[in-house]
Amino acid sequence: MKTVCRMCHGGCGAIVESVEGIPTAIHGDPDNPTSEGYFCIKGKAALDLLRSPDRLTSPLVRTGPRGSGTFQQVSWDTALERVVGELSANMKLYGPESTVLGQGTDRNYQEWVFRLANAIGTPNVVGPAHVCFYPRVMASVLTYGGFTFCDYDGDPHVILLWGSNKPNTHSDGVIGIKLLRAVERGSRVITIDPRRTQTAARSSLHLAVRPGTDGALALGMIKIVIDEGWYDREFVAAHTTGFDELADHVRAYDIDTVARITGLAPDDVLEATRAYALAPRACVEAGTGVSQNENCFDTYRSIAILSALCGNLDAPGGDLIWDPMPIEGRRAFPRTDLLTDDQARKRIGGDKHKVLSMSGWVAPGDLHEAVLSESPYRVSSLVLFGSNVLASYENTEAVLKALAKLDLIVVCDLFMTPTARFADVVLPASSWLERDQIVEFNSYLAARRKVATVEGCRSDEEIILDLAARLGVGRHFFPSVEAALDAKLAGIGLTWEQFKEIGYIRNEKRYFKYRADGFRTRSKRVNLVNNALRAMGYQALPGFKIPPPPSPDLPYIMTSAHSRQFYNSEYHQLPITSRGQSAPRLTVHPRTAEREGLKDGDEAELFARPGARGVRMAVKVSDDVEPHVVMADACWWYPEESSIDASLTSSVNLVTNNDRTDEHMGSATMRGVPVGIRRAGAPLGRAKRAGHE
Ligand code: SF4
């Protein structure tokens, strides 16, 4: 049966082979126009989700102290009644805003979570949006009224791969194979990344930028483009506002200053800018690498401005703004109209991280501060859909303290995680293989079809429907998930039954839409200077804060990245994905290793405060990083450990905090953290488990 993989955001076409209704094999679908048969190790491990003996298959109610892992199995009815009883009581006492919903990387149910929040009247939905996709989304929307995707099929001459390892990590509906195909057809890749990834090593130019300084580089590139006259004069005159103010603003970012801040050679900065700006067709693939520091929003804004100046917006082989598909999808389904203005104004952090708040999200740091201080009001309940916040959010210590103070924690997940272990009620969720969904991306709609059932589990959509009914807001929902899918598809005149037979509908690509309609901004132009931000109290032009320099105690700058076989904090318990790596790696340069007396395979501790608890990692010596940079595997945890403390001993978020956050988005500095390293004491690594090699 054909379906669409959701082991990550990518959306590769998948074919599941079954014998007597039981899936036996999974592989890529060669006929899928998006992925062309590509299928990565995570996709190949998907059937382990169905077979894993560690899957949660019964609702659990905590019977021992929080975090002890002592639970009692109960029926769905008992678990949901308990959740609804406590939520209702808490909301009656403290108001609907005292309930916070949360989600992780989303399995195509984000709009369901927001709809439930809006229906019950809470403005508070927390997630990793602040360090993931949303800084890019909001910077693009506020600059030119939409979000762009590289038009790889349009044969860009130059692809600027900025903080993104696209062939390894795949964003919504964008598969690295498209980039590789473009390269085969002659595209030149320039990579901006502190690490020499495999992609960087094969690029025509690699700028190993100092972590956290991409914003200075982007502003410097804008200055070069303006000074050299390499911008698209016609486009700038007809379709932008604020060019003179921008030109004045970037004067401070001369090439020598930029080189000093970023650690790059001036000639490399100049060459990268020349190649990008003068290419007849060029696009920028900016990834999460840029999202995780205090400059992230303005860095994306500068990158968006660079693209606009060079005339690459909506151009063939450039940065394409897709028309939305005509279904009731991510924009309409959340029903923001259900939330009153008074309630919306109560969003936690809304007065602080105003741009994130515009997108509907709450930053974890703001939530934890609110929980601990009970200001602006008491937060009583947290309901998490697929989110292991103890491993994935910055500042583990604050997360733990905040969780401990809540009256009710509910976690819906596939496996027991440190966060689920801390919950009062755990609801066993189904995997993507066990549910019907509409996959809605920029360039296509596709049907994810249910191929299996794991007894005892329910999809997040089913759980939300049930909770909505029991909480008395069922009138804002649907009688069934299929009825909701039918309603979503009404705009294209199909039912779910019909759509799943079709399987895939390609969106229509239209270039240069702004020539007829203008951009979807108030001025109809690209906002090089942003007066909306100015009115909100921010700088109208993108700024840059220089990160703190290394010190004798903290002589290195930490960046981090996810291992290819995992997806954020997921799949650490699956045999295929966890094979061959028993501990997270800390990649250090040979000179650093020598200085610290470390060698390959040694156990090291990474710390951000001398004397404080460190993160335990296995040393990998490599000149893939510069001597002043160390690279840590992110979101690591040990599923087999029975205590939260032991399972998180290698989580890099033990050394991240909320001290330096982006003022627009609340994005924590998770890359660009000054750190020290030291040799670790006791042995490191996961216990050998059945099913693991
Ligand atoms: S890239 Fe993502 S969507 Fe594609 S096979 Fe791998 S995990 Fe699945």
UniProtKB/TrEMBL annotation:
MF annotations from Gene Ontology: iron-sulfur cluster binding; metal ion binding; molybdopterin cofactor binding; oxidoreductase activity
Limits of the 4Fe-4S Mo/W bis-MGD-type domain: 1-54
Keywords: Iron, Iron-sulfur, Metal-binding, Molybdenum, Oxidoreductase
Cofactor section: Mo-bis(molybdopterin guanine dinucleotide)
SMART domains per the UniProt record, alphabetical: Molybdop_Fe4S4
Source taxon at top rank: Bacteria
Pfam families for this protein: Molybdop_Fe4S4, Molybdopterin, Molydop_binding
Keyword ATP-binding carried by entry: no
Family that this chain belongs to: Belongs to the prokaryotic molybdopterin-containing oxidoreductase family.
This protein's name: Molybdopterin oxidoreductase
Source organism (scientific name): Streptomyces spectabilis
